[in-house]
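#struct-pred

JT: dropping the chains for the assembly here, can someone run the whole complex?
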Amino acid sequence: MSARGYLYTGSVLLAATLTTTTAHAQVERVVDYREVAGRIIQSALADSNAWNRLAYMADTFGPRLSGSDNLERAIDWILETMERDGLSNPRGEPAMVPHWVRGLESAELLLPRETKLAMLGLGGSVATPPEGITAEVLVVSSFEELDERAAEARGKIVLFDVPFTTYGATVRYRSGGAVAAARVGAVAALIRSVTPVSLNSPHTGAMNYDSTTTRIPAAALTVEDAAMIHRMHDRGQRVVLRLRMEAQTLPDAVSRNVVAELRGREHPEEVVVLGGHIDSWDVGQGAMDDGGGVIVSWEALRVLKRLGLQPRRTIRVVGWTNEENGLRGGTAYRDRHAQELDNHILAIESDGGVFAPRGFGFTGSNAARAIISAIGQFLEPLGAATVFPGGGGADIGPITREGVPGVGHQVDGTKYFWYHHSHADTMDKLDPREMAMNVAAMAILAYVVADLPERLPRQ
Amino acid sequence: MSARGYLYTGSVLLAATLTTTTAHAQVERVVDYREVAGRIIQSALADSNAWNRLAYMADTFGPRLSGSDNLERAIDWILETMERDGLSNPRGEPAMVPHWVRGLESAELLLPRETKLAMLGLGGSVATPPEGITAEVLVVSSFEELDERAAEARGKIVLFDVPFTTYGATVRYRSGGAVAAARVGAVAALIRSVTPVSLNSPHTGAMNYDSTTTRIPAAALTVEDAAMIHRMHDRGQRVVLRLRMEAQTLPDAVSRNVVAELRGREHPEEVVVLGGHIDSWDVGQGAMDDGGGVIVSWEALRVLKRLGLQPRRTIRVVGWTNEENGLRGGTAYRDRHAQELDNHILAIESDGGVFAPRGFGFTGSNAARAIISAIGQFLEPLGAATVFPGGGGADIGPITREGVPGVGHQVDGTKYFWYHHSHADTMDKLDPREMAMNVAAMAILAYVVADLPERLPRQ
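RK: done, full complex below.
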């Protein structure tokens, strides 16, 4: 997920205190779904289809950056396969997406010792001149320290060596480091990769420019090299580094949100949406961020179909495009479906990895929360019964801000940021059974909400 | 440490059952050192000198492969600094060492999908032709599977995708994979890196050829890519890979064992040796393998000197050269000091990282073991009081095999193989306080053994 998605997930709902009698009745009706929930769990855990499909997609098409052939070929494959699965109306809904390409890139320490440094340019960065940028390095530990040392920054490469605390706190240097460094006259910005654990692993991710400062190249070094350069700097050694980047932003490209449905038997116009984002960064396999979110959502529909469960309302799986560096997919979904948003009963997003499920973060009315919590009880055998306050996601943000109740699927995130946006976001980190548990959790929530006699209450 | 060092550490001593009356008396005399042991701990833990010196060396000279300028410059710096420290007779004792150089290298997957693969050539490997070796990949999970599929191997690149169980079991594929693959007609050998944890991290290390098979290039892929290629292979996809390596073995080079002393006040000709190996692989910083072993040994002498503790016998610190790919330093030490080995009272090696100390592995007489165990009690406050059966190390192997009692310094090895022989063997993985604890442990053991009225009993 992107920084924006993460920050949104952390938002808190101030709970109201009243629920309606109708809602109470609905909560009681949830109990009737206990047996079917058990069957869904049993069916989802019976095989490793979700893991196998994600592995096939990740191995065959590779990472899926917006604008890349990899992404569009993966989308083609999903649509063809959904067709074969017999899902309703598989389609690509077009969205124009940014098209940033990395090109060749390198960082070399020249002084006090010559050595190559592992690095990844940040998404959206401009290039260096072809000969690179060779400059002395100023190391700071915070924006505040940069302010204090502003007079030393002119003509230098600023390295933000900021240890990981929380993602939300540390990612600010990835997003905003280039602007802050350019403001004080730096010629490039480097960050310590945003991760708590490193095996000399650079992590990419989106960065921003603004309209008032020069656009300078921005890249991530590893925790190891950032710490080493900081030590050299603290010893009073002159540190000189050469950064070369060919990065460029091409004209916007056409991509697609991947959409398919299990049509409702009574109110097909009423929709429960669930999904993840199909794009990824251009390194690793985009397995947990967020191929897994798309695949478990898709597999949830397949499990329901296999069990012959056709709910009253439609369940729609969406693989949003361009979450990472533009959120154009989520926005395009809102715009295309603007007239149907009143009939969007619930939007469920999975974008925190597909590790062992823990529960759901919910944003919506208290009456609806009571129902979601009751459904959550069915996930007790999976260890995923908790309904957390607040929840959603970057891709469903555009529609939840229009009033659609939102759920952020929650998983064990202990190691998520070890892998996030790096070469290590790969299949071997994911467990087939844990993925199947996520399929069960998503399928149960979507099915019960889509099948309850009454709509999930808004405010 | 090398594979050889590890296997040696695992050897087991069959304990004899008798100890002498003299030894009992010596054990009782150990008690007299309790107060000085406390002072040593206090002094060692009072600063971060060991960590700071290791960081300076690692940052300034980089990794230290045998034959490299990096290694010789680091040795020069150590000798100069030992001189400034006022240690006795700092000197480099020459040894001829192998001179393998990596050169440029790359691995690219061509089919079923084009992508670059992270890799490291194995130490000692030959080069590919300049245009590389392009061939289909045969994936096997064991030597046994290779035997079964021998008919399929001709002309192919064999990939041993063997998950880490223990280092001893898994490293056999690194050491022997090329010979096994060449025997069945393969054109190159690849292994899954020998590590339990990977963030797309290749790990190098020594490999062997024999005189009866063609020398084929050998390299390590990451856990992630080995697993991916294995999945492709299992799906029946044709996997084609291009391997390019410029590796070559140049004529042997001159290196040096680094040696300095704290001279004994009564029996300067009797010696307690302690040390680690100063060479490393050519990636990362060789911080824990094994710069740390050298630096804590050296710092142990400095702490004793600072406390004004001059033992009866000489304590000698040695930074052996070329442990990783030849063991020429350990062998040269034995040969140069052949006439003095009867006066080598104890040899102590640290080559398992400088994480939190756990105790000592000891190989020698039961009488001596009783004394070492009594000294170990002083390390209780450090959590390092255990004396394990068997112990030693690759570098002291040549002299312990001549009868010198040996100690392998033991530390918490939980994460050692995460970093071992990779770009991630760097300073940030080491903790200043844990390093200081190792200094204390080494200093106490060396000092008490060197100062006891009687020599540590052999058989």
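JT: nice. Residues 103-246 of chain A form a domain with the Glucose Oxidase; domain 1 fold (CATH 3.50.30.30). Residues 287-306 of chain A form the longest helix (20 residues).
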